[in-house]
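no rush on this but wanted to send it before i forget. theres a chain ive been looking at and ive put its sequence and its fold in token form underneath. i want to understand how the tokens follow from the sequence so walk me through it. thanks a lot i owe you, the record is right below:
>
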Amino acid sequence: MGAQLRVYKRRIRAITATKKITKAMEMIAASRIVKAQRKVAASMPYATELTRAVTAVATGSNTKHALTTEVEQPTRAAILLITSDRGLAGGYSSNAIKQAERLTERLRAEGKEVDTYIVGRKGVAYFGFRERKVADSWTGFTDSPAYADAKRVAGPLIEAIQLDTAEGGVDELHVVFTEFVSMMTQNAVDGRMLPLSLDKAEEEDGAKGEILPLFDFEPSAEDVLDALLPRYVESRIYNALLQSAASEHAARRRAMKSATDNAGDLIKSLSRLANAARQAEITQEISEIVGGASAMADATAGSDK
């Protein structure tokens, strides 16, 4: 076997092995998307009803609370950026990071300082490589988040929104995540989580125009909001984590399918080149045999004379 043919054979074996890996990763990601979608659907009713409860408390009382009260001149904001722990998911993490960068620029243009909180190793690595400060970070659960993970992430954010800016607190809390639209479409989006915009909350939850019932609050509306604040933040973060996980699996499935298809095309191309090289070797060997036989015949004819 010629040297060129050996090179083609070696490359075909290597790419075939890679194709098996990408195909397996594609199938794994496809199986996880369905589970992630179910978790997203299961989390929506709780988040919706909790938002309606907060809206009812806020509209049914005159209590000023960090959950619903707008600061007249906000000077500091926090951004929670959700990325992935692993790669091989196309532009999933980079799109979320770009969305966070645009949000950061917009907030700074409004005269606000920005504290960044990050979920996922990709986001942590991005900020670490650029030696940019991160208020806090969490890793190790982006592909299958649990409510306990959302609760762990929400803790420092709730503490920051309850503190004064002079003590290191923030006036606003924003979240950047990847919204799962369909198997083929996932969009990096940002939204303000706190203070809660009551009109927007009613519109999102289908309560726009409805007359909310009147409540008596025991012991007080402020105490009720204090109890609902952590639950609201945790549920919203949990829903964002679940949507991001579903988007990550969908992006990885699409990326691995593209890699598998490209590997197949490359194998076909290399197989054609290998066949051409083998044919060239066979032709050369035949030519050498014919040439050798002709030389022997000429030598034999010369000796007979």
Q: What stands out?
A: The chain has a mean pLDDT of 85. The two ends are 40 Å apart (CA to CA). Strands lie at 76-82, 113-119, 136-138, 172-180, 186-194.
